[in-house]
Each structure stands twice: as C-alpha cells, then as structure tokens.
Design brief:
Layout (H helix, E strand, L loop, with lengths): L1 H5 L1 H23 L3 H4 L5 E5 L2 E23 L5 E6 L6 E2 L4 E5 L2 H42 L6 H41 L1 E3 L4 E6 L6 E2 L14 E16 L11 E6 L7 E8 L9 E9 L10 E18 L4 E3 L2 E8 L2 E13 L2 E6 L7 E4 L11 E4 L16 E2 L2
Parallel strand pairs: 1-19
Antiparallel strand pairs: 1-18, 2-9, 2-13, 3-5, 3-8, 4-7, 5-6, 7-9, 9-12, 10-11, 10-13, 11-12, 13-17, 14-15, 15-16, 16-17, 16-20
Helix pairs in contact: 4-5
C-alpha cells in the first residue's frame, strides 16, 4: 500500500480502469433487448376434439349360474339299489338316474291288484243279486193284480231290490277305493325309479348304493343336499348387482357382453332377462339376471365373469383423451389455446371409452385443447402449439367392443 501511495498517478489510473470496466458491464446488462432476455414459450401438444357416436356400457363383475339347479331326492323310503349315473355325466330329460329298492312297492302293487279283482268280483255278484231281486219284484207286481200275492209280499220284494241296489253301490265304492290304492301303489313303485326332470350335468353325488333314503327328509338332515345335484347349463344366468344410480339405465332386452378368465380374448353375448324390481336394503343394489345361450356348454356354473351392458348410444359425442382433463378438488378442467394463450376451461365429463372420455359440457368440439405439456402452463401462459393427430393418440375404434363405463 505504501508503494501505491508513492505513485499517485499509477493509483488513479487503476481506479479509472476499474470504473470503466464497471460501466461497460452495467451497460451491457441493462441495455440488452428485453425480448432477448425473455424465457421461451413452452411447446404443447394440442388436439381438436373428435365428434362421433359413442356406445355407452355399464361394467360389472358377475357370477355365472346354471339356468336350473335341482337336488334329486327320493319320494319314497328305501335303500338305494342302483346308481345309473355319476358326477360329471350328462343326462337327458326323463333318463333313469337312481333305483330305490322296490321289492316292497312291487308287492304293494300286486296286493292292490288282487284286492281290486276281489272287489270287482263282488260287484259282479251283487249285480246278479240285484237283477234277481228286480225280477222277483216284477213278478209280484203282476201277481198282485189277480190277488195271488199279498201287499206284504210285494213290499218285501221292493225292499229286497232296494237293499241289493244299496249293496251294489257300496261294493262299487269299494272298487273305487281299490283303484285308488292300486294307483298309489303304482305311483310309489314308479317313484322308486328316479328320473331326470330336465337335461343337464350331474354336478354332485352325495350318497352311494346301499344308503337309506326317506321321502320325508327334514331340511336339517345331512341328506338335505339330495342324492344327486343336476345342473342345466344349456343357458346360463349371469347375476349382476346394479347400484341405485344406474337402475334407470338398465332395461329388459338390452344386450350384454361377457368375458371370463377361462376363455381370454373371447366374448359371449347375452340379454338382460330379469330384474328384481327391488333393491337390497343392505347394499342398495338391484339384482339383475342376464341370459347367455350356452349350447356348447363351455360356460360353467360358478365361473367369475366381467360383464358390459349396452345401455345406449350418445350421438356425435365430443371426446378427448383422458390425459387432457385435469382435476382440482371438485372441478375438472382443460386448457384451451386462444390467441396463443392457454385458457383454463371448466368441463363436465360423461362416458369413458378406454383412454378417451366424453365431454358433456364446457366445449363445443371446435376448440384447440392442450393434450400434452399441460403441466407446464397456467391460465394465460403464452404457448407454442403442435397439433396432434387423433390416430396417434391410441383412440379405440367405436366398433371394437372396448370397455366403456360411466364415471
């Protein structure tokens, strides 16, 4: 420092040089063009919404049930003598499934036939007695005119005819009783041969040959499951539970599509066939049944399925990729480019079709909507746009059967 003070000229020159350098730097910093210092506008991908018909589906998970299920019981008491089928067998309607030991029932039929024959013989005998009493009465009527017999003889003949007629009626009633007894015995004998009420598969076999069964099995008995369980799966029922807000959309006759894990990539078609018309108070859902024709019997009872019910078509629906829609609390919005600026626009969405969503309110369908890069902008941000092709946005074809669901 002492040296600098010894040379004041050098010191002043150094200070002057520093001042000049500072002025140059300040000039360069403050005198540059503001447009050159401004941050570049972000580049965003935009798209014009598409307008086309949109098939609307409601999606559910469901259980597949046989069209008919019946547990086969015996209507008579006895031991199982024969089982003609086993689990997994397909049986036709009226095919013989089980034979109950029918020895006693055959004896009962034979006894009833013998009793009926005896009663019929007595009726024939009484017919003869009635005819004889009638002939006697006729003779008495002829003889009394010439007073060959008394009035008492005529009255006795009349009483004999009435008694013979009454006895005949009694014997005829006995014949009818014997006929009923024979019919009951034959029915019990027929019940000892258990036949299939409809065509289907034997799903369960719970008893073996030699097991005792009764026609009065209590519901709490271990036999209440029945000897066999028969399932009809030529048509299957698909049971879905429809939430309360979707109940007005479901109608009898609507078409449905069914997919199962057992047959990936395959779709089965069905029809809404039955609605419970009442909601379960615990779940607030309404049971709905869909019938699916299953002539090849590939669908089995107990399978899990995913179901889509076609509930309508929205004509010329405005649609955007779901990525274009943002959510803030309870509102949904998109960014629309107007005059080079991103403008936040509130929208309402409807049905969803894969990665695309229907815009039901907020857009006319002619706007340029930001699809990619929307996270880089705010309301009023100046942007550069790059128009995207809807084909490049993985838009599923309307006819491809893709999943569509309401929000």
């Amino acid at each position: 420092m002492n040296r600098l003070f010894r040379h004041p000229i050098v010191t002043l020159g150094s200070l002057a040089l520093l001042v000049v350098i500072g002025l140059v730097v300040f000039r360069l910093g403050t005198g540059a063009d503001p447009a050159q210092r401004k941050a570049p506008r972000p580049v965003v991908g935009t798209m014009i919404p598409i307008k086309e018909d949109l098939d609307v589906y409601l999606s559910y998970t469901a259980d597949i049930l046989p069209n008919q299920i019946v547990n086969i019981f015996s209507r008579v008491d006895g031991y199982i003598a024969k089982l003609h089928v086993d689990k997994g067998d397909f049986v036709k309607r009226n095919q013989l499934l089980i034979e109950i030991d029918h020895t006693d029932y055959q004896h009962a039929v034979n006894q009833a036939k013998a009793n009926l024959a005896a009663a019929s013989a007595k009726v024939a005998q009484q017919h003869a007695a009635l005819r004889n009493a009638t002939l006697t009465l006729d003779r008495m009527k002829a003889l009394i005119q010439n007073q060959f017999v008394s009035q008492q003889d005529l009255d006795t003949a009349q009483v004999n005819v009435d008694a013979a007629a009454a006895a005949l009626e009694s014997l005829q009633a006995q014949v009818k009783q014997m006929e009923v007894a024979l019919a009951q015995a034959e029915t019990n004998l027929a019940y000892s041969y258990i036949r299939a009420p409809f065509a289907g598969y034997i799903a369960e076999r719970n008893l073996d040959v030699g097991a005792y069964v009764t026609g009065t099995t209590a519901s709490t008995s271990t036999l209440s499951r029945g000897i066999l369980s028969l399932h009809d799966i030529d048509t299957v029922r698909v049971l879905i539970d429809v939430v309360e807000k979707e109940v007005p959309l479901i109608k009898i006759g609507q078409k449905a599509e069914l997919r199962t894990e057992a047959y990936p990539g395959e779709t089965f078609e069905g029809t809404v066939a039955r609605m419970a018309q009442t909601l379960n108070r615990a779940t607030r859902t309404m049971p709905v049944e869909i019938d699916v024709v299953n002539t090849d019997r590939r669908l089995k009872g107990g399978m899990f399925a995913r179901v889509k019910v076609h509930v309508g078509t929205h004509r010329m629906a405005v649609q955007l990729p779901i990525d274009a829609v943002s959510r803030a609390e309870d509102t949904q919005y998109v960014f629309v480019v107007r005059d080079g600026l991103a403008r936040r626009t509130a929208v309402e969405i409807g049905a969803r079709n894969g990665n695309w969503v229907e815009i039901t309110n907020g857009l006319t369908g002619d706007e340029e909507v930001i699809v990619s890069g929307k996270d880089m902008v705010r309301d009023g941000t100046a942007v550069q746009t790059q128009l995207l092709n809807p084909v490049d946005s993985d838009r599923p074809l309307r006819r491809s059967g893709v999943q569509v669901s309401t929000p």
